[in-house]
User: What shape does this take?
Amino acid sequence: MSVTKFAVRSAALGLALFSGLAVAGLPLAGAARAADPATPDWPCVWRKVVELDAGTIWDGPSVDGNTQWNSDDKVRKLSQYLISRRIPVEEAEAAVKKFASELPADTRDQSLTNLFAAVLSRTNTERKLVISGIERFHKRQLARAKEIEAAGIALPNQGQSLPTEQTTATEIDKIPEEEDKYKWEVRVFQERQQNIPIACEIPQLMDERAGAIARAIRAEMKS
Assistant: This one.
């Protein structure tokens, strides 16, 4: 790395470090990105909703308190298959159609309602796990950001002049090991931070999948 590039990079790191708001250009306070001030530990831009409400994706019979699906082995197994994100939505919809075609006419709608209740229940269980995981990861990142900030302030020679064009390669090679470690930790932090927006998409994708399955189930009902 040239002396000039090193100086620019070091200056950028220093500015981010002492701003108290970021580490290497990343926000220390993820709360600022949260859509709802009531959930300051939530890092996603969309509002935190712990459970998917049936009414947002379903216009069929009420499933409030419906636990009948627990005693139906076929419904339990099929619902687990349907919510699996490894299964293409098209295959899930085909599985719903096949299941419906094998049901007796007089119990068809009730069995399909139970299937939706099972899909919703399982989806919400997984959503809670995902949301909890996002929050735990975000809190660890916030704590790590503070540690990195403190480590940067404690670096040797902090506040002295940055390398100049006259600085020799030998002098640059003498940069303290602590600074190399610090820059590595910042890089790891940045890479991990990039995972948060990706993780934030998962609950929304789960909701979209549940909606598609709900529509497939509803389409097979007679009333």
